[in-house]
Amino acid sequence: MQNARNELIFKGKEINPQDTVRKALEDADEWKHRKQKEDVEGTLPVSRSIIDQKWRPPSEDWVKCNTDGAWNGVENQSGTGWVLRDKEGSVKWIGAQAIRRAKSAIEVELEAIRRALVMLSRLNYDRIIVESDSLGAVNLLNNEEIWPVFAPMLQDIHDFFR
């Protein structure tokens, strides 16, 4: 998805929707395999990927959302992405969005989580486990680190779990 967006933005080349969806599914599968060594649980249902564990499905009546952010401080363009899977590992939803003027990678990672939760709440999901590959974002969400600049975004994310 990001590649299609980049091709359009930077090269003016359009990729048809079927190829975009196919590539998004391939990327999600690659991401899943790359992140297979994960699962450090926090106080919130947010965890960070660790390299030696496989992706674990959520329990009955829950879904799992893996999020990621990409930050380019030089070009001042970033993006977020997420994939939602059920207990069988079947992809239910995928989302991506460009972000402009992000100040840091951790801001983009938190925004990826926030935007995924906004969309999933609109789709009436309320039992969501969120996994991120950003230790900094997970530490902030679990109150292990304090960065006041992110307080409003963190509050938005915490509100989804209440």
List the helices and strands and how they pair.
Layout: H1 2-11, H2 17-34, E1 40-41, E2 46-48, E3 63-72, E4 77-85, E5 91-100, H3 105-122, E6 128-132, H4 135-141, H5 151-160
Parallel strand pairs: 2-6, 3-6
Antiparallel strand pairs: 1-2, 3-4, 4-5
Helix pairs in contact: 3-5
How many separate domains make up the residues? 1
> CATH architecture, please?
2-Layer Sandwich
Mean pLDDT: 79
- The CATH homologous superfamily is called Ribonuclease H-like superfamily/Ribonuclease H
Tell me the CATH topology: Nucleotidyltransferase, domain 5
Order of helices and strands: HHEEEEEHEHH
Shape assignment: globular
Beta percentage is 15-25%
In percent, how helical is the residue content? 25-40%
Main β-sheet description: 6 strands, mixed
Quaternary structure:
single chain
What is the number of helices?
5
Uncertain runs with pLDDT below 50, 5 residues or more?
35-43
What is the CA–CA distance across the termini? 31 Å
* Number of strand segments: 6
Radius of gyration: 15 Å
Structural class: alpha/beta
Level-1 CATH class name: Alpha Beta
Q: Strand arrangement, largest sheet?
A: 1-2-6-3-4-5
